[in-house]
Amino acid sequence: MKAFRYLLTVAATLFLLGSALADDVHTDFDKKADFSQYHTYQWIKVKTTNQLWEQRIMDSVDKELQTKGWQRVDSGADVAISAVGATHNQQEYQTFYNGLGGWRWGGFGDTTTTVQNYPVGTLVLDLYDTKTHRLIWRGVSSASLSNNPSKNEKKLESDVHKMFDKFPPKEAKS
Fold first, then answer.
1. Domains of the chain
2. I want to staple 139 with a disulfide (CB 3.0 to 4.6 A). Which of 16, 40, 67, 125 is the partner?
3. In this structure, are residues 131 and 106 in contact, taking their beta carbons and an 8 Å threshold?
4. CA-CA distance, 121 to 125, in Å (whole number)?
């Protein structure tokens, strides 16, 4: 019985940790923007804490926009894109209980709390109408990072794909 409670506690902790580390992708857009008028884009800025990622971000976004029929140009585009990527350390507190104790067993058992640090990467993509200079679309992704750059690159590609899954946005009919 004690082993079962311990396994149940470990399983619940792993489930909560897994959901806390899941990728978080959100998008928003200007409801007044007519996305059917946009067909070309250009990059105006890509800034990251690691320069190796600048080209990776551009390649991932280029791939997604080009599958939507948009064309990248060097100047005179309909839309200008800015990307900012950053990393920071996140802390996760994990408490493990050895026995439940309480009224039945005369105590609460032993508890151990540890702090786990893990890196989190955030990417913000902004699309601007080049004629009005207004922000028309924003995508934000935040995900836990691995020590393996290949895994992080796959996460980047997956998150950028999620950002552009329902792109270009369509305003709901009233």
1. 23-91+115-163 (3.30.160.670)
2. 125
3. no
4. 13
Provide the Cα torsion 160, 165, 168, 172; round to 10°: -140
Residues 6+ apart with CB under 8 A from 122: 85, 86, 87, 88, 140, 141, 142
**pLDDT confidence bin for 119, thresholds 50/70/90:** low
Q: What is the largest CA-CA distance in the chain?
A: 75
**pTM attached to this predicted model:** 0.70
Count of other CB atoms within 10 angstroms of residue 104: 7
Between β-strands 135-144 and 24-29, what pairing exists: parallel, antiparallel or unpaired?
A: antiparallel
Long-range CB contacts (within 8 A, 24+) of 96-100: 96/9, 96/10, 96/13, 97/9, 98/6, 99/2, 99/5, 100/5
Which percentage of the chain shows pLDDT scores above 90?
52
List pLDDT tens digits, range 58-95: 999 999 999 999 999 999 999 999 999 876 566 566 76
Cα separation, 58 vs 172, in Å, equals 30
